[in-house]
């Protein structure tokens, strides 16, 4: 397998199953991941087709294909990815996805559609970490904050996990304060996620963890 270049591309390539079958990279951009993993690359507009060492199909999502075994759908919004899956055809073997805007929404949407999260990896991207997800057909047992934050990620040995959790902790702390007395439902969800992040930091990285002071304490 060729090198896939940037960290997020490498993570996407690393999660491709050993026997992916018919593999499609949806919205492949320049086609670097498709080239690295031997995928069919797709783009909606002919003018956006990139490198010439991969086969290209002008397509909106997966719709033109009669069947697909494994699909890569990355770098799009969570609702866009879920919409592509809803229009089908449903990948028969595996799905590798990344939604930079709302990974929790993506995970919940996958679970609702009968996908089980099989593996997750992190990749540095800007000032945060891309959450790259592999899912396979099946029932996802995780719910709530555990599903939102990544059921396989939270128990993984990913070398970026501690740094990722600290970024999440800072982000969720700010969001918790911003939603207090303004959005009861969002505040409750945010607090649940924050408490799970803190508990994971204490359990996984006890020597480095610093307890966040809570209001009224």
Concise summary:
By secondary structure, the protein is α/β, with parallel strands linked by helices. The protein contains seven helices and seven strands, in the order H-E-H-E-E-E-H-E-H-E-E-H-H-H.
Any overview of this molecule?
Helix content is 37%, strand content 19%. It has two domains: 134 residues, Rossmann fold (3-Layer(aba) Sandwich); 52 residues. With 217 residues, it is of the alpha/beta class.
Question: What is the topological layout?
Answer:
Layout: H1 7-14, E1 23-26, H2 32-37, E2 40-43, E3 56-58, E4 70-74, H3 78-87, E5 94-98, H4 103-112, E6 115-125, E7 128-137, H5 144-149, H6 161-179, H7 184-204
Parallel strand pairs: 1-2, 1-4, 2-3, 4-5
Antiparallel strand pairs: 5-7, 6-7
CATH architecture of the largest domain: 3-Layer(aba) Sandwich
Return the domain count.
2
Largest sheet: 7 strands, mixed
- Assign the CATH topology of the largest domain: Rossmann fold
Task: Record the strand order, biggest sheet.
Answer: 3-2-1-4-5-7-6
Tell me the name of the CATH class of the largest domain.
Answer: Alpha Beta
- Unreliable stretches: 212-217
């Amino acid at each position: 397998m060729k090198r896939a270049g940037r960290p997020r591309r490498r993570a996407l390539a690393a999660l491709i199953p050993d026997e992916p079958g018919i593999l499609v990279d949806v919205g492949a951009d320049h086609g670097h991941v498709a080239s690295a993993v031997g995928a069919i690359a797709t783009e909606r507009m002919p003018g956006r087709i990139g490198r010439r060492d991969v086969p290209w199909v002008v397509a909106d999502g997966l719709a033109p294909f009669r069947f697909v075994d494994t699909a890569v759908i990355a770098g799009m919004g969570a609702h866009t990815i879920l919409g592509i899956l809803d229009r089908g055809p449903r990948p028969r073997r595996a799905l590798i996805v990344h939604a930079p805007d709302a990974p929790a929404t993506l995970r919940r949407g996958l679970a609702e559609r009968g996908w089980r999260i099989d593996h997750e990896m992190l990749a540095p991207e800007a000032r945060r970490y891309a959450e790259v997800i592999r899912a396979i057909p099946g029932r996802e047992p995780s719910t709530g904050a555990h599903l939102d934050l990544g059921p396989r990620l939270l128990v993984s040995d990913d070398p970026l996990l501690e740094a990722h959790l600290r970024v999440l902790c800072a982000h969720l702390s700010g969001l918790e304060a911003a939603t207090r007395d303004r959005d009861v439902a969002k505040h409750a969800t945010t607090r649940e996620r924050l408490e799970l992040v803190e508990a994971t930091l204490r359990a996984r990285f006890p020597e480095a963890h610093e307890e966040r002071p809570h209001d009224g304490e």
